[in-house]
Amino acid sequence: MDFKERIYLWEIVKGLWITLRHLVYNLFHQRSMPTLHYPEEQRPMPARYRGRHRLTQRDDGSLKCTACMLCATACPAKCIYIEAQEGLPEGTEKRPQVYNIDMLKCVYCSLCVEACPCDAIRMDTGLMPPPADSREKFIYRIEELTKYPAIKHPNPPFLHRCGKL
Amino acid sequence: MIVSCLPEIGYLHRAFEKSSEKGSYTEVIPYTDRLNYCSAMMNNVGYCMAVEKFFDLTIPERGIYVRMIVSEMSRIMDHLVCIGTNAVDLGALTNFWYFFQAREELYDLIESLCGARLTTTYTRIGGVMADLPEGWAGRLEALLAKLYKVLEDVDGLLTKNRIFIDRTRGVGGISAEDAIGYGFTGPCLRACGVAHDLRKANPYMFYDRFQFDVPTGERGDVYDRYLVRMAEMRQSLRLLEQLLATLPGGPVNADNPLVVLPPKEKVYGSIEGLISQFELIIKGVQPPAGEVYVATEAANGELGFYIVSDGTGRPYRVRVRPPCFPLMSSMPHLVKGQMLADMVATLGSINIIAGELDR
Amino acid sequence: MTIEIPYIAAVLKAIAFPVMALNMIPVLVWIERRGSAFIQNRIGPNRANIGSFTFLGLLHPFADAMKFMFKEPFRPENAHPVFYFLAPALVVIPSLMALAVIPIADHVWVQGHEISMSVTELEYGIAYVFAVASIGVLGIAIAGWASNNKYSLLGGIRSTAQMISYELSLGLSVLGVLLIFGTLDLNELARGQGALLWGVLPKWGVFLQPVGFLLFVVACFAEANRLPFDLPEGDSELVAGYHTEYGGFKFSMFFMGEYVSMVTLASLIATLFFGGWQVPWMTTTALDAHLGELGRTLSQIAAFAVKIGFFLWLFIWVRWTLPRFRYDQLMRLGWKVVLPLALVNILVTALVLLLANGF
Amino acid sequence: MPKLTVDGRPVEVEAGQTVMNAAEKLGIEIPRFCYHSKLPVAGNCRMCLVEVEKMPKLTTSCTTPATEGMVVLTKSPKVKEGQKAVLEYLLINHPLDCPVCDKAGECDLQDQYFAFSSTPSRMIDQKVHKPKRIELGPTIKLDQERCVLCTRCVRFLEVYAHDHSLGTVNRGDRAILTVFPGRPLDNIYSLNTVDLCPVGALTSKDFRFKKRVWFLKNADSVCTFCSNQCSTVVQHDEGTIYRILPRENEKVNGPWMCDTGRLEYRFINAEERVKCPMVRRDEGQERTTWREAMEAVGAAFKAAGSRAAGLASPRMTNESLFAFAKLFVETLGSKLAGFVKADAGLVEGAPADDFLIKADKNPNTRGAEEIFAAWGVEVDGARSVLEAAEGGKLAALLVMDQALLERVPNRERWLKALAKVKFVAVASLAENELTRLAHVVLPLASWAEEEGTYTRFDGLVQRSWRAVPPRGEAKDALGLLSQVAVAAGKQALPLVAEAVFKALVAKVRCFGSLTYAAIGKQGAKAGSGAATHKVEIVNLAKDKGAGGAEARTW
Asked: Hey, of A2, A19, A109, A128, which one would you mutate to test binding to chain B, going by the most B CBs within 10 A of its CB?
């Protein structure tokens, strides 16, 4: 410690100067502060944001999902529960009868999206799951999973694997 | 005055190692996020490097560059948290906010890279989840200058401030011999004057291609740890600058269909891709039977993954060598004979992350 | 029956001054919160509103006050049934009492009566302030003890020791000023600083006694339990120290006590070292001549307000800049640095005065 | 005995063996689709190509006889290239069906593509489309796009089931597997073709879309549908059984199994099962607790003394039968016990063939006879019980199987007789006439829910492992019998099957010196000493299928 450090004051004044600088700058640049006024202002979610799941649909509104269970297999939290049923005569051979995601178990790793061979599940809603007051309400069924559109629709399947998104 | 101290660990024990045996090799990656959650990316990288060692995989240059970039970013983020919270414990709140703002901006970048801030799950066995998005490197480059400024601010507020020096100098010190004896690694060891850094001592990825110094301290006390971490952040920034300047093009994932999932367009469009997808998801990657140990220089020190494979798609055993554990075990030694308030400073300076400590 | 003017004035002042002081608290809290926010690149509280008006967040302190008032007044099971409730009052009342002798302007004449602009004017004013202010420590010590909590007790003990140590320095560091002006009456002190020094500078204590000023300010910080001397609270070590067990209105009384004593101490600094209500370079007579008595009084009050405003801001500003001392360091500073310096300061001052005024 | 080298390793095989056999002998894996060790060789998939020195082209190892001095390479670059080419060829028109295909996860095409090729697709043209979701018969659906035309299914049906309904028609990429119009594939062995199919062309309607195969867990078991006792694998997940597959056992069933046996699991999953004990009150049967039910049983049996009787079932395991006999003969001291074997008349009329299906639908008739004989229970004990019941001499009766009435022709007589018994307890899986008559119904575990051994009609003792936990409050037979003993104020019986088996071997001489370890997964016959106790195997010696199955060489 040299003398300047030893007498406390010099460094304290320097420190005060730094904080004052921030104060004055922020006083006059309030808009550039990083804080968001949250409910009114919302951060734009990046295109890759892993949000709430979404089951994609074909143009006729039927689910793309074929209940192949790869997502349930890849899921490290084992939060996906699927029951298959015979498909409609005009559609694919198999379709899900039950497709539940337990959002309380989900860890948002997106391995299900990566596993899906049909582009049937995506996490591109840009939404977080809203709070609920019972465990049952956190089990999202097909209705909840098809409720929200993508933030960027159509979102080409996993283009970001090659860096284009 | 602290007469004796007994660290009680295990309150965040989540059976990481046992749970890892339950799923496929890929399913462990999200678990690794939860080890040192301040620098999840580095855990991802370390784990994937360990599994890749089974296969002798060659990751394309760009993939390794990307991994190095995220690792160095994570190192900075981790040190920002460590110093920021340490300062809060000493009553200086403002530094924390300056650092956390910088960290937030780094997180924003991480988020646009992999879609999550804390629980990244970014790397994959054989590469990474996704290449850098467009314009990402430029955003990072712009952020680097800002980070230098933040470091300067905190430097100005703390480094020469006598109150800070009084609180940290000679506090929680340990000699180099004792530190090695306890198994210290990382900044805490370097603060004792031992210039041991796995990136230099046992270069992995491309650390031997770039210039950076290994900052060391002298006395191994809280103040030296602070200085070493500050210097390391500057070195990481230096590394990031070099990495960004020489970032090559090309693919990021290894070209091995037995390990890496096929590109999505192949999965949707060809039976071959579809079959590979199914095989890799159902059975997982299946490393040959054997065992590997891969250690990386994580933010806190040597983060090692020891994996035993029995040739199936599930790890037979995963063992983590967490940097925190030896640090925590030295707590009684570090704080003995010191004052109660020093405990807070010391604990903060060795950067105990319970997720990693208890696993 | 006619009540004489001085009595009416005394009653009015006795009501108005504490009300003014208490009303400063929300403003101070607001400045503290918003100021710290801006220092830390945040926005700070700005949500409480009436209709759609938020008044820049000014309503938050009021909302807080309301909340405090409606909280359940509980007592921890093993806390002392009497002292636990008595302690907050013991903190807040003396700090309000100490304000009684602070003059905010020169005397005014109302219908031929000379009225002082303080609640009361005492010849030994400064001694009264110290005497009363030191009762506050009793409140804190009792609060720590009566809570029956080890952290609170430690906080209380720390506080006692700290206050005793620094009260000595506090008293000694002003002796120089008192020697120079030869009075203990605060109004007289302020009046004495109206002259000019070498025809240029106002004859303020700070110019005559720079060392005394610094020591006094340091001692003030310690007296007010503000960072870097907030050891009785020390949130990282003592989980808020003496008021750990307090909530609701009782907690807010500690809070008020702290802020009122900040006001007292800031007023003291202003009065002792910055000429009190003196407008620089303008004496009371000069102002009377130009602005009339009302204008003069108002401008003096304004000058005083500006001065204590600055010092209150200094309290806040320092808090968000510096780390906290350790207990032993605080004691060392108090006994080994501040106290000897104050003694030397008195000696030198006395010698100089002796030499200047002749034996 | 030709000697040859495969991949540089010398091997000697018997004359007439193929190169494939030689490689298998060395443990070298050669990929294949159409070849199956139990089927005639077709050689049409070309997957098993190997390189043989001095042969100009790659040759199929499944058809090439091993000859003296042959040098075979199975992993040379040329072979690998050939394998890749074959796989690419097979995949050209293969539909992108893995997500909807039940075979995914156990599909030879998937596994072999991944193991032997994993080269990306070069196909840019439209795939050939063929009919999908064809109802081939009551049990099977056909997808002609997925079919790789290996004809395993055709060959199986022709050789084993003597059924010529399946066949391939057309050529080239128009070739399809099909049945004659209006002649569905309706064969009791049809589901074996689903096992044989290397891809997902043939899928079982029963298992279709129920569960992904990679979630299934296996438990080795024995089919209890008839006295042939096919070795099986019970595939289950989280307490539910999803399908039963044959387990290869040369001594019993080879790799085949009949459809009836495969579908026998359904009653185990059924919701209608008795899940908790029931007691008859005035207004009918009411749910109750085990404690209350056993109090009633205990009171009745205590009061009955030697007037207690029991009826076992030849569906029970050897261990349970042993415990049952021990309970009545030793613990309760009642000579009135027996088991109800299928009536000769019923066995005569039951479906049976010369392959795997036997007329006696009770798996363990022989075991029951041996064990009861060892305990000195008369062979026709059931008749004595019936007569005693008719005479109103019975105070308490324990029936171990609700299917009692299915095995007797004189049901009315039995019903009338049982109605006269003062107290009837029925350990049961499901409700029927008999349980409605019972005073207490006790939930019994099914065969998949308990461990034990069964003795086949030819004396082969086979082990069955527990696959799933018992439904509801059901108890396995050992536990239930022990409870009865305790309730009657006697000592508890052992609960662990292996311990009971040890006691059984000690008591029943015809089990020789068998142990669980000796039985293993393939079963074992007791030594020749076991034959000293001569038991007439009712009606089975006359069964024409018995000899036929034995005589067949796989």
From this structure: A109
- Determine, for residues A23 and C35 on separate chains, whether the beta-carbon distance falls below 8 Å: yes
Question: D460 - beta bridge partners?
Answer: D525
Amino acid at B128: V
Nearest-CB residue to B162 (from A5, A115, A123): A5
C-alpha atoms less than 13 angstroms from C-alpha of B294 in its C-beta half-sphere = 22
User: Is B136 within 8 Å of B109 (Cβ atoms)?
Assistant: yes
Chains contacting chain A through 3 or more C-beta pairs under 8 A: B, C, D
Per-residue pLDDT band at A164 (split at 50, 70, 90): very low
ipTM of the complex, rounded to two decimals: 0.80
| Cβ contact C326–B98 (<8 Å) | no
pLDDT tens per residue across span C41-70: 888 888 877 877 777 778 888 888 888 888
Name chain B's partners: 3 or more CB pairs within 8 A. Answer: A, C, D
Omega into B251 within 30° of 0, i.e. cis? Answer: no
State residue D287 phi and psi, 5-degree precision.
-65, 145
Question: Is C236 in contact with B89 (Cβ distance < 8 A)?
Answer: yes
CB of C358 within 8 Å of a chain B CB? The answer is no
In this predicted model, what pLDDT tens digit does every residue of B247-301 receive, in sequence order?
898 888 888 888 888 888 888 888 888 888 898 898 888 888 999 999 999 888 8
φ/ψ (deg, to 5) at A52: -60, 145
Handedness of CA D228, D229, D231, D237 (dihedral sign): positive
Task: Name, in order, each residue with C-beta under 8 angstroms of A71's C-beta and a sequence gap of 6 or more.
Answer: A80, A82, A112, A113, A115, A116, A121
> Does pLDDT of A98 surpass 80?
yes
DSSP per-residue codes, C127-190 = HHHHHHHTTHHHHHHHHHHHTT-HHHHHHHHHHHHHHHHHHHHHHHHHHHHHHHHT---HHHHH
A80 and chain D in contact, CB less than 8 A: no
The pLDDT of residue D528 is 41
D97 touches chain A (CB under 8 A): yes
Chain A contact for C56, CB < 8 A?
A: no
CA pair distance B13, A92, nearest whole angstrom: 45
Nearest to D451 by CA among D461, D465, D438, D462: D465
What are the structure tokens assigned to D424, written together?
A: 């009837």
**Touching status, chains B and D (3+ beta-carbon pairs under 8 Å):** yes
For residue D121, the one-letter residue type is S
Joined tokens for residue C309: 């405003």
Strand, coil or helix: D273: strand
* CA neighbor of B342 nearest in space, from C234, C244, C331: C234
Confidence of residue C113 (pLDDT cuts 50, 70, 90): confident
Identify which has the larger pLDDT, B278 or C283: B278
Q: Which residues is D525 bridged to in the sheet? A: D460
Can the peptide bond before residue C88 be classed as cis, meaning omega within 30 degrees of 0? no
> What's the sign of the alpha-carbon dihedral D153, D154, D155, D156?
positive
**Distance between A88 CA and the closest CA of chain C, angstroms:** 54
pLDDT tens digits along B296-346: 998 888 999 999 998 888 899 999 998 888 888 888 888 888 888 888 888
- CB atoms A111 and B26 under 8 Å: yes
Chains C and D touch (3+ CB pairs under 8 A): no
Interchain CB contact of B98 with C (< 8 Å)? yes
Band (pLDDT 50/70/90 cuts) for residue A158 is: very low
